[in-house]
Predict the 3D structure of the following.
Amino acid sequence: MELLAQTLVNGLVLGAGYAVVAVGLTLIFGIVGIANFAHGAYFAMGAYASYLLTSHGVNYFAALPISVLIVAAIGLVSEVVIIRPSLYGSSHHGSLIVTFALGQAAIAALILLLGPDPFPVPTPLGQRTIRVFGLFVTEHRAFVLACSVLVLAAFGAWLKFSVKGQQIIAVAQNPRGALYAGINVPWIRTLSFVLGVAAAGLAGALLAPISTVYPTMGSSALIVGFTVVILGGMGSIAGAMLGAILMGIANALFETYVSVSWTPALGWILVIVTLLVRPQGLLGRAELHRH
Amino acid sequence: MTSPGRDVTGARTSGRTFREVLYCVATVAAIALLGYSSSDAYVLTLAGYTCAFALFALSINVILGGIGEVPLGQCLFFGIGSYSAAIGMKHGLPFEVASLVAIVASLVAAAVIGAITLRLTGAYFSIVSWGLTGVAMVAATNLDQITGGPLGLFGFPPITIGPLQLSDPRIYFFASAVILLAAILVLVAVRRSPFGAAMESIRQNRHLARSLGVDVTGIRLKAFVLSAPFAAIAGCLCVPYSQIVTPEVFNVGNTVDGLLMVLLGGSQLIVGPIIGAVIFTLIPQVLDLDPNVRILVFSAIIILIMVFAPGGLYQLANAVYGRWGKESGAESSR
């Protein structure tokens, strides 16, 4: 019983990290309308930013928001310079290929600039475990959980209660209607993209002390992000959070009770099953044509 | 439906057969020239490998330029081809028979996978097909009794096709080039058939095609199944080159390389992927780039292509050709 509870807790902590990445991804998909295959690269950029800052003496807690801002700035530039022109170009599968290429280019650039070796990121929280209701959680992971929950809650509140947030929801529901209502749709799209990749960067910076910082750390984040988003429903933020928790718990349970070496396939199998059985995911809107 | 002097796609056919026989003869001559003029084993083997990978790029283009989906999972069939050839040879089958097994396996896999996943379109289809390669890679790593696990399968007896020894670089190149040429001819014939026209209509507008009575679901499935054996043969042909088959054949990066070849040359031209494959293989040889610089450069090229010329070099060539005052657009070179 205790193993089960501990597994569930591990899954929850995993899920929290996934949730931040996934929410960013689903935001971009729902509003900008593209499957952002570069999402993992922004995750890695956030981690690298936190490494660079902490290795120059910046306190980790201060490095976190600065890393997020750095990734947001890079996201802004890439959206305006690359994504926007390719989106409104003639090829309808362009966004997939362009974002994939962007991600690859970013990772290659990271390797060229900083080398392929992993870097550690120190966290003031150390590796001490704390006991919560008789279960063990390392301090930093508890911090990741708490931080993720806080950020997501704050984001949800901002979406609901601020003008810009409401505009974003409007564009997600009906871009043309939003345009007619006077909302600056292109800039809302840019804002959503920036917020989405900033979320990925935050997740990267949060998870950096746990996984160390290496160039391809983003690819598993990307894959997990997509599996969670599809599970929860593309374009649904609540769905992304729900999907993340389910994914985290499923992964932890599978790893503990079934097999470690087959666990990487679990996510993909869930995606395939979801897309075939309930393509809109758990909380997404049912559409007639998945396109 | 077809008017005299035009084929199913509306392109003019007068004098075309003569022109194309000429192209074929010229190509065969070029292959022979390249094969016999060079005695550098490295160049010949690389040329052979380029032909094999170009075949893979062709299979990708059946889906991308044919029905308009991005088949991130095409390396699944490539991997099935490689592993079937390798496992077959490990069990004593000659290479030709193992390759036939590979073709059949890929056809079956494509039929099953296509039936299930082709109801999805766009990013969803791409992600699912990517996911399948992920599952395949994990399976290949774990089922080590069959696949040799992460280390893979290696140590094959000398690979032959009939009397031809593929360990001879020149013969390897000729074999790959001839197979590639045969594939091109098959695909050109397909493109010009009513089936090819139906595929093109689906690529342009799926819903409109359906409203006109085109069997969209069936055609998509047939196109998918058509593309698989080309990828499988490419996978088989890469075994003599690399002499080892590991789970890495299922890496989505292989499909991305193939996609880049297609985009470089232009997805609307049957030989576009070939042109892309040649450029893709030549540039690193000529420039001797650090692998990461190569990725950076190629990714930048992809982005530039998708933003400015999604039709690749073919589109650029047409644009330049058009500016010189000659006919453009109406005369299709398909």
Summary: Residues 16-251 of chain B form one domain. The radius of gyration of chain B is 20 Å. Residues 327-334 of chain B have pLDDT under 50 and may be disordered.
